[in-house]
Amino acid sequence: MNKAASAVAGRKRDDKDPVCGKHINRNKAHIVVEHEGRQYLLCCPLCQAEFERDPAKYAH
Q: Residues near 59 by Cβ (< 8 Å), separated by ≥ 6?
């Protein structure tokens, strides 16, 4: 398995911003928020504001 394939294979489902869909490196996320016991990675302040406005819309 090459390096790129290994990175994709190691990715967790939660490594995606639920607002914009962007894949996020957990170490480079703008913020990690918790909602109903699950963590969500958000890429920027705009996605954070949108998520916080209506978390149930984006939580899965």
A: 18, 35, 36, 38, 40
